[in-house]
Amino acid sequence: MITLFTRLLVSTGLLFLGASLATAADNPKVELKTDHGTVIIELYPKQAPITVQNFLEYVDSNFYDGTIFHRVVPGFVVQGGGMTFDFTEKPTRDPINNESDNGLRNEYKTVAMARHSNPNSATSQFYINLKGNPGLNATEKRPGYTVFGKVIDGMEVIEKIAQEPRGMFKAHPEAPNYAVRILSAKRYDPSSSATSSSTSPLVNSRIKDALVKPQ
């Protein structure tokens, strides 16, 4: 009886493990090629469907190609996805609804949307957490910053960006002195090099002040 019970427990555990692995395998992934190396981000459409769809639309339209990491705060975040090397703001799609109450936390390596003070103002800019930042999470009294993915490979690239010297540009004191670009952003599939494409128009142009604030 004990042996049979043990086998049932093991079998059940394997089933749950298999389901968990299958779910992770099904999550879309994005490959960011930067001046410092390649970063792979796993996205969580189940928890943040609106945000993931928005991010993938920008990826599929090649929006992020040539944008820079314009805000680097060591020990806090690395932020990019909205400006070119000369700090020109790219036109964006309409803002999306905030999904920060999805249970995902601003932990080390997680990827979240930058926004204005209006919770529903995120467009294209995103950031990678350099540490756990609980002050950016939603609470019962206020929305937070929506986490929608996590760096699963290449975090050393983000850490290297975080070490870039800054301060050369008076209007952008947190920008690296020499631009660190996203050379390309595309859907990642280790078994295929196929990349989706989209020609949806970008109709909005407001990214100004889409910065997260240190807590």
Keywords:
215 residues, alpha+beta, Cyclophilin, eight-stranded antiparallel beta sheet
How are the secondary structure elements laid out?
Elements: H1 2-26, E1 29-34, E2 37-43, H2 49-60, E3 71-73, E4 77-80, E5 110-113, E6 126-129, E7 147-153, H3 155-162, E8 182-187
Antiparallel strand pairs: 1-2, 1-8, 2-7, 3-4, 4-6, 5-6, 5-7
Please, how many helices? Answer: 3
- Give the fraction of residues assigned to helices: 10-25%
Order of helices and strands: HEEHEEEEEHE
Any low-confidence stretches, pLDDT <50, length ≥5? 14-22, 193-210
Description:
Residues 1-24 form the signal peptide. It catalyses: [protein]-peptidylproline (omega=180) = [protein]-peptidylproline (omega=0). By secondary structure, the protein is α+β, with helices and mostly antiparallel strands. The protein has a single domain (27-187), classed as Cyclophilin-like (Cyclophilin, Beta Barrel). The protein has three helices and eight strands. The N and C termini lie far apart (56 Å).
Give the structure's gist in a few sentences.
The protein has 215 residues and is of the alpha+beta class.
